[in-house]
Design a protein that fits this description.
By secondary structure, the protein is mostly beta strands. The protein contains five helices and 21 strands. Strands 10, 11, 12, 13, 14, 15, 18 and 19 form an eight-stranded mixed β-sheet that branches. A five-stranded antiparallel β-sheet has the order 8-7-20-21-9, with no helix packed on it. A hairpin with a 2-residue loop joins strand 14 and strand 15. The radius of gyration is 19 Å and the shape is globular. The two termini are 25 Å apart.
Length: 263
Amino acid sequence: AEYMGFQDTLKLGKCDASDLSCEQVNDFFFLGASCISGDTDGIFHVSRFDGVMGLGPSTLSIDGTKTILQSLADSGKIQQSQRFFTFFLTPNANQAGSVFSIGKIDQSLFTGSIVYHKLIDNYPHWGLRLGKICVGKTCIVDCEIQQCAVVPDTGTSLISGPQILVDRLHSLIGDVDEGCKNLQNLPTLRFYIDDHEYLLTGSEYVFQIQDGGQLSCGHGIFGMEMPPSFGSMWILGDLFLKKYFSVFDVDKNRIGFALAAKK
């Protein structure tokens, strides 16, 4: 696919989109957007993509449409045990080298071991059990009594959670200097998934953007209310996934994280 000078090549095993001798994979759909009416500042006007290929669980499929992983397995392109995909995201904007793969784990993209977490039963998304979120010795969320969910999502740039809890988190973190001068002084943020701790430093959870050669910063955590069926839900977007290599395993009903390799 090519758009605005960017070009991506999809490869499945030894085949890619330019090799006409390779068999096609049928029975899944790519949602393209060729003409969008509405606000010219909207996402489809400013984003550099041609459409959306969903990677959510089958429970989110429209009208029972097969997921791409199930279509690949049913057509023999991958084994049932290979129904997983991975993400490695480069840490900087416009930096080449991010990797999305299906059915294979590239050991060079992470350090240490992958820690796996089972999905929440019957949850409508890639939901994991959130234990707590802490800043220093203060924890704003304790989910031992009421179940809380956390969803890793490459379609979200930042980190989101219920507004009242995000407001408290901001008060504990303090102000983020717009000129990015106090990143080293910001406290470390700790997410506990099951009982495993994941750390984000100030420079990792702050949103940084280059505009005309000028670097500016702001809180990378924002409030967003979800439908009641999702419960108390947090979304770990690209700020988290840039630090942690991720494995979404349909076959074993789990998600794994490991510290991403530095590229």
